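agent> step 3/5: call structure_predict on target 'ABM domain-containing protein' (Glycomyces endophyticus).
agent> reason: downstream docking stage needs a structural representation; sequence fetched in step 2, passing through unchanged.
tool.input:
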Amino acid sequence: MITVHAYLWAQPDRLDAYREGLRALQASTLANDAGCLAYHFWESVTEPGAFVCVEAWTDRAALQAHLDAPHHRAGSAALDAHRARPADVRIYESDPINL
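tool.output (status=ok):
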């Protein structure tokens, strides 16, 4: 499994538009990407406009297909006008474990 943590920041005066763009990207991803196991956004309670996207993918090929998909390219480009700074994206190979 591939896990992605994408840290994102919106411009303060464009926060609502950024949230809407994230919702649209989430909806298009869940509707179109068969290898997506999870795709969630959360906003910081201590830093308004700071978000994290946590994604889970079946494998690297599924993640790459998502990154290459027209809906992802368009959604990401739409968010660019509202970003405060570049995303910090961290990608991990992971296996679930039981405690």
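agent> step 4/5: record observation. The chain has one domain: 7-93.
agent> proceeding.
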